[in-house]
Structure formats: structure tokens, C-alpha cells
Write a sequence for this structure.
């Protein structure tokens, strides 16, 4: 990366962008708010649709394929330069009485041929460590807890096996749906009866997972939908009324739709995934989550909990609901960071933060950067400050309208505004390619997430084999975090600045394991099993006995041959003939 000369500025007409940065764009938030009714929401993005005559698998559509997966050239390039070696070295710990034989390649897993092709189109060559375990476990019908570092492919770790299992069975298991080619609003509307629900804490994450589902559902009959706050309920209801097999949503909006049985019913639900499980178990979501969990058909639903950290609240939920048969996978220590991120802690005074920030942005200029602050007001103030310094910045926080939030994310993703100022919660789980630098302008305080929040925040960079830098400003206020922060740095062999040296544990020497009192790992005595929710008694977590041969569903057989078996069951719904594009087919 080019280091600019000190204080140098590139003159570009009357706008002068500091060296290395694109010109700033002024975002008119008031106009955006007024345009809300005419907005094109991210959740309205096109999904693959089929005609009845296709059978279980539809033909490819080049235009949509490029929209979903990018052009073929960029697909190939995506994998170059990825360094999986650090991820590969991390030990995967399997807990629970069941032993799952892990897969080495996607082809090993016995997944549906269309899913295999979609994985290839995504550019995924080998499964990540968490995927190696959760794919066979979910295919075999186990409830799963997956705890793995940020950016380690947890979304695909549950979507691939679930969608693969459902491919070829949508007709049999799913609700009748209108033919999209002939759909008439108000005439053909159906009640949405999803087979899968994914609950996530933020709107941005809901859209992101919806986009991953759009890719992985390509050419199948499975129709993904997303619902989240800030968009008129009527609009989202309209999308649901065309049928929905995979529903991704934020808890408040999901609860709202559950209260409208003429729009949404969970009676066909087979899989419930709680992503970013630790955040979802925050007190703020409790009533919504309870409403969603209590809605299901007892004993008939498979569960998955996924997160990068697993604090006590999440462990308590697992303890309450999970049965003996569930499997837990931990990639490294729960809450640990990845070695692909270079972490730097800089001591600053509160007054000196802006100046230090400008220096940093000058040193690492032009790269996609996320700056975290601790309050909405601070986000607005910092956005203004950076904009006045002629930097291409945008910001996102929960007081913004949905139009503003989506516009900010689009500007950041496209590179129009490569600097994003965000509060921690709104940026939870977001995955933007090539975020090279994360800056904690404010470190998260112990009361607001502490070290676990730190892990999630810096995890916006150094994702999936890429490398990144995370710089955090440390003021005297951050003293309570010093000890655990130092140990987190030691764990991945980071440099410890002088002012943190005193927090290096006594007797610690390089290569020894660092101890964490808030160890997010499961205590072996804390194992679930006596959960109220087992079997028929409550929350509906499955036992080993009911994993197989789900009545009428025709699934739940131990993984491996699912694709072939479904092909037989559906009268050869895929295979060469069915997969051929039908002449003149539309979607
Ligand atoms: N096997 C794979 N090979 C290459 N890339 C992959 C693979 N699996 C997933 N990815 C990509 O890795 C990125 C990170 O995945 P994802 O967002 O699911 O991570 P995560 O573990 O959920 O992170 P976080 O905890 O921060 O939410 C995504 O861009 C995804 O498309």
C-alpha cells in the first residue's frame, strides 16, 4: 500500500480528496427519508423462480447467474490469495456423545448435485473447518451448536446441508405455491409456510444471509425470503404471499408476522437456526425469541445455534433446550480471534482520537475501513468530522431509517464510500469483501459486550483466509479491559505495547496457553441433556431416536446418499434431462 507524503492532498477540482481516497459523496439523508415509499429494498432482490414443468431442478439462467455469482472471470479470481493455512491449523473440538466423521471435500459430503454446482459457482473450493463438521452432522439429522471464529463461513455451514437436504423435496414438504409466471396479486396469494427459519439480530445480517440463500437456492424450487424492520409490513407481506420456503428475519418483524396467521404459519417448519446466538440471547430480544420458539410444532424441528462467541446466556439457553443427541463444534477457543488479523492497540487521550484517526487513515489510505464507536451520536459526529476532512465516509446506526441504512451499506460495499462509521450492533456479522482495516475509535466497554464485542468487531476484517489490520484506541477509561485484551493479543502472538506489558500473566512464556476466566467454552459438567425441550416435552429439540424417518417428510436418513435417494423418490427430479434448460424458459 502506498504511503502518502505527509499532509499531501490530491486536488480534484473543488473537491480535494486526501491522497489515496476517492472523492467523497454527500449523502442526503433527508431526501432519502422522503424517498422511502419508492425505495427498492435489498430484501426485494430477485430470486430464482421456476415453472411447474421444470420438475425439481430448473435450468440455468445466465443473467441471474451473473447477478448472483459475479462474472465467471471474477469467480476464479476470488479464491486467489486466500490463506487458509492459519484456519486449517486450528483444532476443531467436538463435544457431545455423538462422533461425527468429518468431510474433507464438498464432494465427500453426498450433497445434492445442484448444491454442489452452486458451491462451485460461489467459488468455494474446500470446506472451512466448521463446515467440515456441521455439513455431515446436519445431513445426519443432529441439532448443532457451531462456535467458530468470525469470518469462518458459519452461514454456509448451516445453509449448505439444510438446503441440500430440502432440494428435490420442496414439492413434497413445502406448501403449494403459485406459479410465478402467472401470479396475480390478490388472487393467487398463499400463506407462507417456510421449512426453514433463520433468526438474526440485525437487518443488515438478515439481508446478507438472504443473499447467500439466493445463491445456494439457485436452480432449486426453494424460495428464500427475508423480513426485517424498517420496511413496510405490507410490502414484505406481498413477497411472502408468493410462497416462502426459507425465511430469514429479525426477531421483531418475525414475531409481527407470526401474529398474522393469514400471512405466515410455522406449521411446516423443519429447521430453526439462531445465528449470532449470543447477541440474540440478549435481554432485548428475549420476548421476541420466546414468541418465535414457542410457535413450533413440538419434537419436529431441528435446531442450530451459531456464533463466534458463546457467553453464559447462550450456554444457558443450550442447557435449557438441547437434548442428548445434539453435537457441538468449537473451532479454537470460543471467542478467540484469528491470526489473520494483525491487532494493534494505540494509547491515546480522548481529545487526541481525531488526530490519531486522521494519521491512521492517511497511513492506510484508500482501503475499505470500518470505524467503530460506542454511540449513535458519536457515529453522527465522527461522520461529519471525516466528511469535513474531505474523506469518502458514510455511517450506519440504529436511529437511521432503513433507506439510509441500505444506502450506506451499498455505498460501502461498492467502494463509493470506503470508510464506514458504525456502532457495534449494526455491524454485527456483516461480511464485506476486502475490509482491510477495522478501527475501534472507542473500545467496547465491559458493560457493553467487552472482549466478546471486540472479537466480533475486529472480525469484520481478516475474513476467510484474507488478512487485515485492527487498530484500537486505548484511553484510561479502557483500563478494565486491559487484562483480557492483553491475553487475547498473546493468544495470537501479537505485539504487546509497552503500556499493556504489566498485564501479561506471570509465568507466561511464548507458546504456552493463555487462560481466560470468562472462558466461553462449555464446562463438561454443564452439558445439556436434561433440557426441558427434549423430545415431546417442550421446546422440541430432537433426540437421536427421532432423527430418522421423520413421518411423511422422507428425510432424516443418515447423511451421504441423500441426493441419490431423493432423486429416486422424486422420480428423477434432476439428472441430465431435468437439468437441461427448457427451450424458451423464463423465470
Ligand atoms: N468454503 C468456503 N471457501 C471460501 N469462502 C467461503 C467458504 N465458505 C464461506 N465463504 C465466504 O466467507 C465469508 C465469511 O462467511 P460468513 O459471513 O458465513 O462468516 P461467519 O463465520 O458467519 O462470520 P461472523 O462470525 O463474523 O458472522 C463469506 O463471504 C462467504 O461467502
Amino acid at each position: 500500500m502506498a504511503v502518502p507524503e505527509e499532509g499531501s492532498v490530491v486536488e480534484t477540482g473543488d473537491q480535494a480528496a486526501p491522497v489515496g481516497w476517492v472523492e467523497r459523496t454527500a449523502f442526503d439523508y433527508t431526501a432519502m427519508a422522503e424517498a422511502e415509499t419508492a425505495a427498492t429494498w435489498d430484501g426485494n432482490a430477485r430470486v430464482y423462480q421456476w415453472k411447474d414443468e421444470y420438475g425439481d431442478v430448473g435450468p440455468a439462467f445466465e443473467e441471474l447467474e451473473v447477478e448472483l455469482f459475479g462474472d465467471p472471470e471474477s469467480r476464479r479470481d476470488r479464491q486467489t490469495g486466500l490463506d487458509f493455512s492459519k484456519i486449517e491449523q486450528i483444532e476443531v473440538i467436538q463435544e457431545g456423545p455423538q462422533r461425527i466423521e468429518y468431510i474433507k471435500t464438498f464432494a465427500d459430503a453426498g450433497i445434492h448435485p445442484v448444491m454442489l454446482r452452486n458451491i462451485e459457482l460461489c467459488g468455494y473450493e474446500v470446506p472451512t473447518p466448521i463446515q467440515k463438521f456441521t455439513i455431515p452432522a446436519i445431513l445426519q439429522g443432529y441439532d448443532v451448536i457451531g462456535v467458530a471464529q468470525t469470518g469462518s463461513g458459519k452461514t454456509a455451514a448451516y445453509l449448505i446441508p439444510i438446503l441440500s437436504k430440502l432440494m428435490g423435496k420442496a414439492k413434497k414438504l413445502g406448501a403449494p405455491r403459485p406459479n410465478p409466471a402467472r401470479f396475480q396479486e390478490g388472487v393467487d396469494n398463499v400463506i407462507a409456510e417456510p421449512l426453514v427459519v433463520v433468526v438474526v439480530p440485525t437487518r443488515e445480517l438478515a439481508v446478507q444471509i438472504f443473499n447467500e440463500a439466493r445463491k445456494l437456492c439457485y436452480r432449486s424450487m426453494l424460495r428464500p425470503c427475508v423480513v426485517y424492520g424498517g420496511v413496510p409490513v405490507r410490502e414484505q407481506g406481498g413477497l411472502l404471499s408468493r410462497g416462502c420456503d426459507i425465511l430469514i428475519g429479525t426477531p421483531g418483524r418475525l414475531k409481527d408476522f407470526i401474529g398474522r396467521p393469514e400471512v405466515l404459519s410455522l406449521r411446516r417448519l423443519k429447521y430453526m437456526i439462531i445465528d449470532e446466538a449470543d447477541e440474540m440471547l440478549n435481554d432485548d430480544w428475549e420476548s421476541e425469541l420466546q414468541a418465535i420458539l414457542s410457535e413450533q410444532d413440538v419434537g419436529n424441528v431441528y435446531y442450530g445455534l451459531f456464533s463466534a462467541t458463546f457467553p453464559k446466556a447462550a450456554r444457558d439457553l443450550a442447557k435449557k433446550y438441547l437434548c442428548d443427541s445434539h453435537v457441538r463444534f468449537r473451532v479454537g477457543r470460543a471467542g478467540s480471534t484469528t491470526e489473520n488479523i494483525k491487532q494493534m492497540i494505540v494509547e491515546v487521550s480522548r481529545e487526541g482520537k481525531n488526530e490519531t484517526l486522521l494519521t491512521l487513515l492517511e497511513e492506510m489510505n484508500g482501503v475499505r475501513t470500518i470505524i467503530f464507536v460506542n454511540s449513535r451520536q458519536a457515529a453522527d459526529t465522527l461522520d461529519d468530522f471525516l466528511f469535513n476532512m474531505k474523506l469518502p465516509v458514510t455511517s450506519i446506526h440504529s436511529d437511521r431509517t432503513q433507506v439510509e441504512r441500505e444506502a450506506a451499506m451499498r455505498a460501502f460495499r461498492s467502494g463509493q464510500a470506503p470508510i464506514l462509521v458504525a456502532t457495534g450492533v449494526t455491524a454485527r456479522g456483516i461480511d464485506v469483501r476486502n475490509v482491510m482495516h477495522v478501527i475501534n475509535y472507542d473500545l467496547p466497554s465491559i458493560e457493553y459486550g467487552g472482549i466478546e464485542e471486540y472479537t466480533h468487531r475486529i472480525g469484520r476484517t481478516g475474513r476467510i483466509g484474507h488478512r487485515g489490520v485492527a487498530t484500537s484506541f486505548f484511553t484510561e477509561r479502557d483500563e478494565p479491559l486491559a487484562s483480557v485484551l492483553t491475553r487475547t493479543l498473546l493468544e495470537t502472538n501479537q505485539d504487546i505495547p509497552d503500556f499493556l506489558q504489566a498485564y501479561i500473566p506471570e509465568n507466561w512464556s511464548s507458546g504456552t496457553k493463555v487462560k481466560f476466566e470468562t472462558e466461553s467454552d462449555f464446562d463438561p459438567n454443564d452439558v445439556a441433556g436434561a433440557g426441558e425441550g427434549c423430545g415431546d416435552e417442550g421446546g422440541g429439540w430432537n433426540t437421536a431416536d427421532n432423527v430418522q424417518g421423520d413421518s411423511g417428510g422422507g428425510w432424516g436418513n443418515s447423511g451421504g446418499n441423500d441426493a441419490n435417494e431423493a432423486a429416486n423418490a422424486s422420480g428423477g427430479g434432476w439428472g441430465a434431462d431435468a437439468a437441461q434448460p427448457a427451450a424458451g424458459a423464463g423465470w
The first strand starts at residue 9 and ends at 12. The two ends are 45 Å apart (CA to CA).
